[in-house]
Amino acid sequence: MKIDSKNRKIHSFKSLSSTNDLAREMLAKGKPTEGTMIITAAQTHGKGTGLNTWESEPGKNLLASIILYPDFLPADKQFLLNKCVSLAVLKCIKHFLPDENISIKWPNDLYAGTKKIGGILLQNTISGHHFQNCIVGIGLNINQEKFSESLPNPCSIKQITGMEVPLKKVIETLDDFVHEEYSNLAKGYIDEMNAEYLQNLLNYQKAAKYKADDERFEGVICGISEFGKLQVTVGDKTSAFDFKEIVFLFD
What CATH number has the domain spanning 207-248? Predict the structure, then answer.
């Protein structure tokens, strides 16, 4: 399965509340072509995972949503879609930062070293045991050089390279990688995707510091469960953590 590159559309705006909001409105009115991308120069209510917001200086970064219909994927396998998109965004970033240590920070962030350079937000609509649609929200820090002090560890491509990157080139590169990885998922290349995801997972098989239940500890990420929980070994015990149950520490 491969999304039809001739029929998919890119909708571009100067400002939106959020690209995911518009994608949801489009789906409520009909069925846009799979692979339809919505991009905007600015968001007034950009969203991150959970209650988080996404900050972006107007015109400096990539703010996009992509509409998919992964009806080939059972609903209980939905974290595979997260892996698919994470790998696509990772490869897009590596295209522009080939010499940097780019990794996937579970569950929804992309890191350059120990700094956050991007994030994803998947909003799935499921009926019974099957997908109806998925809105893939993606934020990438491209040309922004100054960030709010309230953000703990942001960075951008320009901060790293000192060079401005044309947003159009980033959009085209991201679009290509998303469709390549999505096609691989639809073809059933699950083992390959799982292996590649772990190879690029931040702190995988490395001792690192975390916090859970107000306690700090050192553990080793040993895998991701079938349902997307982070598996961390501390001593001779392995525990599975859901979103917001564990915090990565970098101090």
Answer: 2.30.30
Whether omega for the bond prior to residue 58 falls within 30 degrees of 0, making it cis, is no
Residue 63 CA neighbour count, 13 Å, CB half: 31
For the chain, how far is it from start to end, CA to CA, in angstroms?
44
Structure tokens at 83: 């892996």
Q: Are 82 and 89 in contact (CB under 8 A)?
A: no
Q: What is the pLDDT of residues 188-226, one digit of tens each?
A: 999 999 999 999 999 999 999 999 999 999 999 999 999
Residue type, 223: G
Q: Which CATH number fits domain 10-199: 3.30.470.30, 3.40.50.300, 3.30.930.10, 3.50.50.60?
A: 3.30.930.10
Q: Where are the alpha helices (DSSP H) in the chain?
A: 19-29, 79-96, 157-161, 167-186, 190-199
Cα angle for residues 134, 197, 174 (degrees, 5° grid): 55
